[in-house]
Design goal:
The chain is mainly β and 62 residues long. Helices cover 6% and strands 40% of the residues. It has one domain. Belongs to the glycosyl hydrolase 74 family.
Length: 62
Amino acid sequence: MTSAINVTFGKEAPGASYKAVYIAGVVDGVSGAYRSDDGGANWIRINDDAHQYGNWADAMAR
């Protein structure tokens, strides 16, 4: 992860020892919404270029 506009937390994945971390930010040069289930070691993009409606980055942590 290079940068994050917003950060929020959610329920841990089954068997995980960390809470899920959600960001609106940049990972490997790609802006998007991401989730990490391992304390930020790895990030999974949970949106795509065709689904970035409204002000989702602001809404995710409200």
